[in-house]
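R.M. (postdoc): so does anyone remember the format we settled on? I'll just put the structure tokens first.
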């Protein structure tokens, strides 16, 4: 059944890479818990055996960014929808790296940062790695990436995308600062 690991070894890395999607959970000290599905190919990377990251794209909200700015707590979950059941959770502390940050160039090499709507890279220092059976997860086959979000962002000029982010991504649903006050994003 469930096991706790000291690090992300090659077997766990292979499992992570094989999953077509992952889920991100964060919560403010007082407010709404948020769970976000993610899944574009090549937007998640194992940076080392205790650090992971993912490319964060412009969306209808910015809860993860707001929650990380407030307290840093984050859990990333992968679950197998294939023949071998498994759920892997990476618990840790996250930080937001924006295109204007000095850390951006080094991290950006792990991701397709030219993806329309790229607004940040979320980096997670993992402090607990645990799996569980996944017996209750259904079998499902991915049909492919849904390109609607990238296509939507690609149709916007940089000015219109910035205006959207300023209107929709400045604060969380609980009023916490998200992109507001961070370096300019693209």
């Amino acid at each position: 059944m469930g096991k706790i690991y000291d690090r992300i070894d090659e077997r766990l890395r292979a499992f992570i890479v094989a999953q077509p999607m992952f889920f991100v959970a964060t919560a403010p000290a007082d407010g709404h818990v948020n769970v976000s599905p993610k899944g574009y190919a090549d937007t998640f990377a194992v940076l080392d055996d205790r650090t992971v990251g993912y490319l964060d794209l412009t969306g209808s909200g910015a809860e993860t960014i707001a929650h990380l700015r407030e307290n840093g707590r984050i859990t990333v979950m992968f679950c197998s929808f294939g023949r071998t059941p498994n759920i892997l959770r990476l618990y840790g502390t996250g930080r937001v790296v924006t295109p204007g940050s000095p850390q951006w160039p080094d991290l950006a090499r792990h991701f397709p940062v030219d993806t329309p709507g790229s607004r940040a890279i979320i980096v997670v220092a993992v402090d607990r790695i645990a799996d569980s059976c996944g017996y209750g997860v259904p079998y499902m086959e991915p049909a492919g990436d849904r390109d609607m979000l990238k296509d939507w962002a690609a149709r916007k000029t940089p000015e219109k995308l910035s205006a959207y982010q300023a209107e929709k991504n400045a604060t969380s649903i609980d009023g916490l600062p998200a992109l507001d006050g961070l370096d300019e994003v693209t």
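R.M.: ...and that's the designed sequence above, right after the tokens. Also worth knowing: The radius of gyration is 16 Å. The longest strand covers residues 118-132.
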